[in-house]
Design goal:
mainly beta, three-stranded antiparallel sheet, 9 strands, 14% helix, disordered C terminus
Amino acid sequence: MKARTRRRFGTWIVVAASAVLLLQGCTRGNFVVRKQQVVVSVNAQGQPGPATTQFTTADSAAYCWFEYRDAPANKPVKCEITYTDPNGTTQTRAENVVLKPGNHKVHFGVEMLRGQGLKAGTYEAQAYDGETALFGTPLRFTVVEVAAEPATTTPGTEPSAGEAPATEPNRAGVIPFG
């Protein structure tokens, strides 16, 4: 009698587990952004560095990082950054990305070429699923001007009379996403 009771109990566990798996397989989770923040760096594994909302023109990059759950295959998202310079002029750049299915982390941001610093001003970032904003409120960060240090020359490296100092062409900022 005892062995028969165990078999019935075991059968109910298998039936219950099968029902749970069947129901989970039939329903899909809802795509949602779980966390978002502005960070100074993102490592190769997608983990965010320290969070901040204040940068200086000596910094060369700022990243908007977010973690999502339950993305279906081929989920398109638009990542957008709006920059407002100290004079009030705005510029918006956007990139469409396709998210990996499931649960993952994404970052997009502002990077300057050749070690130049970020442009002073305010930045606002948002990711969109169609027309729906994914962040409850946009991520905002500020870049403040730092005083330029006086140029120094090493003895013997000054340009000769009538020779212009070597300069690098002016590079504009880019907003890569990935």
